[in-house]
Amino acid sequence: MLLTLACGSLFFPGLFALCTWGLRRARPAWTDSDCVMISTRLVSSVQAVLATGSGIVIIRSCNDVITDRHWLAREYVWFLIPYMIYDSYAMYLCEWYRTGDQSRRQSLTTFQSFLSKNRLMITHHAVILFVLVPVAQLKQQHTLLYKVNGILTLTTFLCCRILLFPFMYWSYGQQQGLSLLQVPFNIPFYCNVANGFLIAPQIYWFSLLCKKATRLFDAPPARKDG
């Protein structure tokens, strides 16, 4: 656990520093803001690839993705914690460079502006760090906190990964004066195909979450001997 945490603490900031240094040497005409922005996106892309790869390895290694456990699922959580902290700082650093004026007084204004513009992302990172990670590590599936966490996970997944698609169609319909059902027939066919490919795995993953939630709420709490 501590070794994984230390590796993540070195890997993400180190990769960011290496990318920034490399871009400054390879593209001397670029501003510091450009180098920092591109480096931040590169590190985020690497994290996304690592997370996706870990998910594929875990799924392929488990006979039952609902009940089986894999060491990588546990360890990657600890590897992810430093990324969340780094990413929060990197977002602020991008905002700091973007403003141009780097005086101490302006830094406070920049920080306030950063918090105002990125409330949702900061909340997302904070919830993962201080709520989801501790709950996931408790391994107390029958506690109220664990069940509340499960309900929040289902709700946010449904709203942000599935209902987002009909909302997107509805928003377009509002702009074009179309009903929700008319939108699919008034946009390019490839848009519907692309959205279908995107939402299909989301529905599948949501079904897995629902199955796990059903088992969690149906299973009686374990009795302690004595």
TrEMBL record:
Q: Which terms are listed as keywords in the entry?
A: Membrane, Signal, Transmembrane, Transmembrane helix
Localization in the cell: Membrane
Membrane topology according to the record: Multi-pass membrane protein
User: Domain TLC spans what residues?
Assistant: 33-218
InterPro entries under this entry? TLC-dom, TLCD
Cellular component per GO, a single term: membrane
Pfam families of this UniProt entry?
TRAM_LAG1_CLN8
Listed under GO biological process in this entry are: lipid homeostasis
User: Signal sequence span per UniProt?
Assistant: 1-17
Q: Does the keyword Transferase apply?
A: no
Q: Which residues cross the membrane?
A: 41-59, 71-92, 120-138, 150-172, 187-206
PANTHER family per the UniProt record, alphabetical: CT120 PROTEIN (PTHR13439), TLC DOMAIN-CONTAINING PROTEIN 3A (PTHR13439:SF20)
Q: What is this protein called?
A: TLC domain containing 3A
Native source species: Lynx canadensis (Canada lynx)
